[in-house]
Specification:
By secondary structure, the chain is mostly helical. It is built from 14 helices and 4 strands.
């Protein structure tokens, strides 16, 4: 009498191999931003050795800082399952308000407080419109951004306003031992963000609400208040970006930051923040803003035409959306 060979070990081995393939694939998708960053740094250094210099490293960190604040503002709204497209309008409008105030004799330190307060107030308006009035965040914040862009033109009258008050520009212009101070705010931003999202009930509520709003509400989370608070924080961070941008440039123009919006959306997405909400890591957001900045700076140093630099930016945005779509599909297939 013959006995059939046992199949259980074979089935278990195949299941283990499948789980390993899934975990490796998920790891690659979740960390693709860092893989791309390392690859591009190597390529850019080969094409132009200056890319790996201390001076260029400082330049990358400075350029990353402003983008990081607006990208985090958008990333927070994405975690909640919404999106805030008014961040660049807030950046330009608050920066213009600060410049005009100082142009009329207001002290720089007071202008900073006004800039941040105006940003938070605009975020409050966005939050109320989305949470209370039930307006779609995509359309409401897009409209708000257009209004604020027009407001910049109205406030500045289309002219460039210079800022000379050092109490306002110290963060953007200051240096310590030859190193710019501005990137310190980048470090503080992501440390604070990690603490808020991972160590506080408020952060856990954002993930819960973004994952399933109805379930979060049923669990006792005040989703309306959470939404308003998230948009207020996003407005405040955008106001910070307005201060940083104007303090670095020592002035404001009518088109300041107008080319940042798509990059600000792409940075958190390519860093792992899901467009459907409830999923995303702080380290991924940091990688996203670093990658997009490195790509721009690297292409500029290789003397590639500005037209192709814009094309590369568009390709990065396309890649971000494609990667997010694959991540979502893999999660749905497992469940």
């Amino acid at each position: 009498m013959t006995t059939a060979p046992p199949v259980a070990p074979q089935v278990e081995a195949e299941a283990a191999a499948k789980v390993q393939r899934v975990s490796v694939g998920d790891f690659a998708l979740d960390n693709i931003v860092w893989l791309l960053l390392v690859a591009f740094v190597i390529i850019a250094t080969i094409l132009n050795p200056f890319f790996f210099s201390v001076a260029n490293f400082q330049n990358i960190l400075v350029q990353t800082t402003t983008l990081a604040f607006v990208a985090v503002a958008i990333g927070l709204s994405m975690l909640l399952g919404e999106i805030d497209l008014s961040v660049i309008g807030i950046l330009g409008f608050t920066g213009a308000i600060g410049a005009v105030l100082m142009d009329k004799g207001v002290p720089g330190s007071l202008a900073i407080l006004v800039v941040l307060a105006v940003g938070a107030f605009i975020g409050l308006v966005n939050g109320i419109c989305v949470a209370k009035v039930r307006m779609t965040s995509l359309i409401e914040t897009l409209a708000m951004g257009l209004v604020l862009s027009g407001g910049v033109l109205a406030v500045t009258k289309g002219r460039t306003i210079t800022i000379s008050d050092t109490s306002y520009t110290w963060l953007g212009q200051g240096q310590i031992l030859g190193w710019p101070i501005m990137p310190v705010s980048l470090v503080v931003l992501f440390l604070a963000l990690a603490f808020v999202l991972y160590r506080t009930p408020w952060g856990r509520k954002i993930y819960a609400t973004g994952g399933n709003t109805r379930a979060a509400y049923a669990a006792g989370i005040d989703t309306e208040r959470l939404t308003i608070g998230t948009f207020v924080l996003g407005g405040f961070l955008s106001g910070c970006a307005g201060w940083l941008a104007t303090s670095y440039l020592s002035g404001v123009t009518a088109t300041m930051g107008s080319d940042l919006l798509l990059y600000a959306v792409a940075a958190p997405v390519i860093g792992g923040v899901s467009l459907t909400g409830g999923r995303g890591r702080v380290l991924g957001m940091l990688g996203g803003v670093l990658l997009l900045t490195v790509v721009q700076v690297g292409l500029q140093l290789t003397n590639i035409s500005a037209y192709y630099v814009s094309m590369a930016g568009g390709m990065m945005i396309f890649l971000a959306v494609a990667v997010d779509a694959v991540r979502v599909r893999r999660r749905q297939a497992r469940h």
